[in-house]
Amino acid sequence: MSQVPGRVVIYGGRGALGSKVISFFKSKSWWVGSVDLGENSEADANIVVPKDADLIQQETDVLSSVSSALNGNKLDAIICVAGGWAGGNAAKDLAKNSDLMWKQSVWSSLISAAIAAHHLKEGGLISLTGAKAALEPTPGMIGYGVAKAAVHSLTKTLSANGSGLPANSISVAILPVTLDTPMNRKWMPKADHTSWTPLEFVAELLFNWTTGKDRPANGSLLQLVTNNSQTSVIPA
Q: For the chain, give me the number of helices (H) and strands (E)?
């Protein structure tokens, strides 16, 4: 393990984007840990989150497992790409949808922050996943918008002095519009796929930031805007 060029933990490593990010880092011979509800066979270490545990127990279990997997080594980055989507306004299932979104996006981001505080190198990177839509009101998907806005707030808070992150580390968030995933293609087959952001683009972007290439300013919220199959990274 000491011979690898770098070490990264991907929170949400079983999802479409997480799997692509793991594959990209593995193609560069990095050590990769995956945190998710199930295992990713490509990862060097798998931390399986106890689905029915509360936030405190999840954090305790994940931190313990990450510590064991790293065996005293430090991480170059913790990248959280966990999340999900649910629609709905205040008239129906607001608490139900909001609870799900909070668990998928905010719990995972908070635990990623704890991993960073305990295991990130000085000068390391934590990247969270927000949403461009949450920069504006989201009346048709309130739970989603509230959860992603919380991730944006956490990103900026972690970049501030006294956040508990190691010295010279940076906290950023990607804010996609629509990612080009198999599930999105299944449910939206007639959509304009040239406006969807390719997973490979995101994986390479995160690798570059991890290795110090074109790294954005601390606390940045980076919108991923794709038009005609060309993606721009635009600070919010």
A: 7, 8
Closest residue by Cα to residue 203 from 218, 234, 181: 181
User: In this structure, what are the phi and psi dihedrals at residue 58, rounded to the nearest 5 degrees?
Assistant: -60, -45
pLDDT digits (tens, 9 = 90+) for 5-35: 999 999 999 999 999 999 999 999 999 999 9
> Which pairs count as long-range contacts for 224-229, CB under 8 Å and 24+ apart, including other chains?
224/132, 224/174, 224/175, 224/176, 224/177, 224/197, 225/132, 225/177, 226/177, 226/194, 226/195, 226/196, 226/197, 226/198, 227/194, 227/195, 228/194, 229/194, 229/198
What Cα–Cα distance (Å) separates residue 198 from each residue in 15, 86, 229, 231?
A: 14, 21, 8, 8
Give the number of other CB atoms < 10 A from CB of residue 154.
23
24, 85, 144, 209: which is the annotated catalytic residue?
A: 144
Please indicate whether residue 11 is annotated as part of the active site.
no
